[in-house]
Specification:
213 residues; alpha/beta; six-stranded mixed β-sheet; 7 helices; globular
């Protein structure tokens, strides 16, 4: 299976530096333009199916790609949703730093131990993402599958493919509307590309402008 993984375009809350998790922040004007640029980049790529997180920012990004592939099944997959940030959702980085400093430090340095108040544990998102990956491998063994999803989901899939310690996932940067590719075969998986964003040009968002991670 060849997995082509896209992160959604910039959302309004990405732009404002707010934690969003499973809150349904819309794409920003830049995010809509990024989705169009991504769709153009993938216009001639073959896919057997497209799976998307049902959250609007990922679904709209995936739908932009799907417009060039009307014959390809387009499937909502809840397992691809972002981690639920609980009480952090809607807060700015500064708010979280003031109200939950220990929790923020744990999330950034030891995410496997983290659970935001009233949110989702890392162990839960890890299980649902890897269960989803394994189900896709069984269902689409020799296929090319596109996933439209979120930051933490992409990082988990990349770290899993590389055999990384999951506490190191925040050392991976995945830009909005970027492409990462993993190939799964009989042997170990291969990370073919990570956070490819040449198609974005000046639309790319620098890491320093998205601090709410």
């Amino acid at each position: 299976m060849r997995l082509i993984i896209i992160r959604h375009g910039e959302s309004e809350w990405n732009r404002l530096g707010r934690y969003q998790g499973q809150a349904d922040a819309p794409l920003s004007p830049r995010g809509l333009a990024q989705a169009d640029a991504l769709a153009e980049r993938l216009r001639h790529e073959p896919f057997d199916c497209i799976y998307t997180s049902p959250l609007a920012r990922a679904r709209l990004t995936g739908a932009a790609v799907a417009r060039h592939h009307p014959e390809v099944p387009f499937i909502d997959e809840p397992a691809l949703m972002e981690i639920h940030h609980g009480d952090w959702q809607g807060l700015s980085l500064e708010d979280v730093q003031q109200r939950f400093p220990a929790g923020l430090a744990e999330w950034r340095d030891h995410p496997t131990r983290a659970q935001m108040p009233n949110g989702e544990s890392f162990s839960n998102i890890l299980k649902r993402v890897l269960d989803c990956k394994e189900a896709l491998q069984r269902r689409h063994h020799d296929a090319i599958v596109l996933l439209s999803t979120h930051d933490v989901v992409v990082k988990i899939l990349v770290a899993d493919a590389l055999g990384m310690d999951m506490d190191r996932i925040n050392r991976i940067w995945v830009t909005n509307a970027s492409i990462s590719v993993i190939e799964y075969g009989a042997a170990s998986p291969y990370l073919v590309s990570l956070s490819e964003a040449c198609h974005l040009g000046r639309l790319e968002v620098a890491r320093e402008n998205q601090r709410a991670i």
